[in-house]
Write a structure and sequence with these properties.
- It is built from one helix and nine strands.
- By secondary structure, the protein is mainly beta.
- The chain has one domain.
Length: 160
């Protein structure tokens, strides 16, 4: 399976929910240039309020790990790449009705976004996260995900 997977995860606390900090959070990109690599590979980008949303990137060859904690389930279906986002069981709100899997032909790409609220650890403070999955079937140019996706799935919910 030739897939290029880019995960962009942005995390914040209540301090970045209101202005002026929310303005900075909202300028965090949902896509980055890709490294020059042959698929399959995973390009992870983490951004957090604690370091002013500076991106921290890692790259690893191969596909995302399979299983419930992987974040994405991939399968080859007669030459199409079947993509389904796996939600974390710890995030709120619960998603009782989920979009179906998306099938990508070679050369297609998808952006799938979902957001979460997490219960506080120790101090009881809520934390929040926006996950953006950019995924292409086959080789991808460095700037592919910087454009407008042909396919977009939004599971963005109101986070209290």
């Amino acid at each position: 399976m030739e897939a290029v997977v880019q995960w962009v995860r942005t995390s914040w606390s209540i301090r970045s929910r209101g202005e002026p900090a929310a303005a900075r959070r909202n300028t965090a990109p949902v896509a980055f240039p890709l490294p020059l690599r042959q698929p399959p590979f995973v390009h992870d980008i983490l951004m957090d309020e604690r370091d002013d949303f500076q991106p921290h990137m890692t790259i690893r060859d191969g596909l995302p790990d399979a299983g419930p904690g992987s974040g994405v389930l991939l399968r080859d279906e007669r030459g199409l790449l079947r993509v389904h986002l796996a939600v974390t069981p710890f995030g709120m709100p619960r998603r009782w009705r989920r979009p179906p899997a998306v099938r990508l032909a070679r050369g297609d790409w998808l952006r799938w976004q979902i957001n979460y609220r997490f219960a506080g650890q120790g101090d009881g403070e809520w934390t929040y996260r926006l996950d953006t999955l950019n995924i292409a079937h086959g080789a991808a140019s460095a700037d592919l995900f910087l454009g407008t996706p042909a396919r977009h799935v939004s599971e963005l919910a109101a986070l209290r």
